[in-house]
UniProtKB/TrEMBL annotation:
This is Glyoxylate reductase/hydroxypyruvate reductase. Residues 24-326 form the D-isomer specific 2-hydroxyacid dehydrogenase catalytic domain. One of its GO terms (molecular function) is NAD binding. GO terms for cellular component: cytosol.
Length: 328
């Protein structure tokens, strides 16, 4: 066992709370690193700043400002928890000699689960049913007619690892599966989940009963779903977003929901997060919003953290970083 004073120093946000590391994750990290919380660092930057070699970024915390990196001259790696690195300026960090890593693949099952959970909750009006059942004023149950999921058409936009996992789950509901992706998947992948490729996204939007967004955020996917795309969807269709909030034009979505251009939306991501409390999306009856909990299970969290640790140890020891993110 490495003595605490011999362990390399790593900066974290904090443990516990809404956005902090769970205790089990911190305990894993402590096996290999001496952890310095952001608050401890700010109280005396010169005490630890020259010794911190790794920054563990969890839920975009601590905030990755240039002023922070000027105080971390020994930093070798920003180890991001999660796949998305749209909040990290990779070229800038690389110019400082700092590498960046992420945690691909391990988040796929949990994210696919939340996609199906949102789809089912919206289709079968589960949130409304819960509210009625718990309401002290309820004396009789009313009928809550929902939308059939079994046998419906599922359209997946973004057929990467997460999209493929969503398709697997959709197949379990005997859904007809369409997908649109930058690159067509192999015939073996398509056959494994019974998916049909739509070269044009518009064709998918016209046919799908449920449209699930599982793309990475990029300049090409920012605002991917706007007024035109929503107008192509069926009036009985539901939009599910488990990618990034900026993939959807929220003003266009608000209008589509208000005018019933589409039936409903179910979002695990918005822009910003959280939405301002007076945002009109929060007051619509045909939307479900969860607080970006796609990867929030204990098992997935610990898998992510172990991958962050593996990346960090490689950086500290001068080895090739398994999941290094290169600038595009």
């Amino acid at each position: 066992m490495t003595m605490a004073q011999d362990k390399p120093l790593a900066l974290i946000s904090y443990v516990g709370g809404m956005h902090g590391l769970i205790q089990e994750a911190a305990d894993l990290m402590k096996q290999h690193f001496k952890l310095i919380t952001h608050q401890e660092f700010l109280q005396n930057p010169s005490l630890h700043g020259t010794k911190i070699q790794v920054l563990f970024s969890w839920v975009n915390k601590p905030e990755l400002l240039p002023s922070l990196f000027t105080s971390l001259p020994a930093l070798k790696l920003v180890a991001n928890g999660g796949v998305g690195i749209d909040h990290i300026d990779v070229p800038y960090l690389n110019s400082l000699g700092v590498k960046v890593s992420n945690t691909p693949l391990v988040v796929s099952d949990a994210t696919a689960d939340i996609a199906m959970g949102l789809l089912l909750a919206s289709a079968r009006r589960i949130i409304e049913g819960h509210q009625i059942s718990m309401d002290p004023k309820t004396v009789d149950f009313q009928s809550l007619i929902g939308t059939e999921v079994t046998g419906a058409t599922l359209g997946i936009i973004g057929m990467g690892h997460i999209g493929l996992r969503i398709a697997q789950r959709g197949r379990g509901f005997d859904m007809k599966i369409l997908y649109h992706n930058r690159n067509r998947r192999s015939p073996e992948d398509e056959q494994a989940v019974g998916a049909t490729y739509c070269k044009n996204m518009e064709d998918l939007l016209r046919e799908a009963d449920f449209v699930v967004l599982a793309v990475n955020l990029s300049p090409q996917t920012t605002g991917l779903i706007g007024h035109k795309e929503l107008s192509l969807m069926k009036p009985t269709a539901t939009l599910v977003n488990v990618s990034r909030g900026l993939v959807v034009d929220q003003d266009a979505l608000l209008e589509a929901l208000q005018k019933r251009t589409i039936r409903a939306a179910a979002l695990d991501v918005t822009y910003p997060e959280p939405l301002p409390r007076d945002h009109p999306l929060l007051h619509l009856p045909n939307i479900i919003i969860t607080p970006h909990i796609g990867t929030d299970t204990t098992a997935t969290t610990l898998k992510m953290v172990q991958m962050m640790i593996d990346n960090a140890l490689a950086a500290v020891e001068g080895r090739q970083i398994p999941n290094e993110v290169k600038p595009k």
